[in-house]
């Protein structure tokens, strides 16, 4: 199910914006005080999502994220 909702990216049809985003996400963050999110924090954010909004650029809806 996760592979269907969030498939691996395909960079063959990337435009300039997509290439830039891929470069950003491939880099490790340089944050001295970085810490892991807890399961509770992640759940709280997902529960607080507005399910009436349209999907993001990646096509994922907040409802699909909650179900996953």
Q: Nutshell version of this structure?
A:
With 68 residues, the chain is an all-alpha fold. It has helices at 2-5, 16-26, 39-47, 62-67.
Describe this structure in words.
There is one protein chain. The protein is mainly α and 68 residues long. It has a domain at 40-68. It is 44% helix and 0% strand. It has four helices and no strands. The chain is extended and about 35 Å long. The relative contact order is 0.15.
Low-confidence stretches: none
SSE order, as H and E?
A: HHHH
User: Largest sheet at a glance?
Assistant: none
Number of separate strands: 0
Oligomer: single chain
End-to-end distance: 8 Å
The proportion of residues in beta strands is under 5%
Chain-wise SSE layout:
Blueprint: H1 2-5, H2 16-26, H3 39-47, H4 62-67
Give a quick set of tags describing it:
single chain, 68 residues, mainly alpha, 4 helices
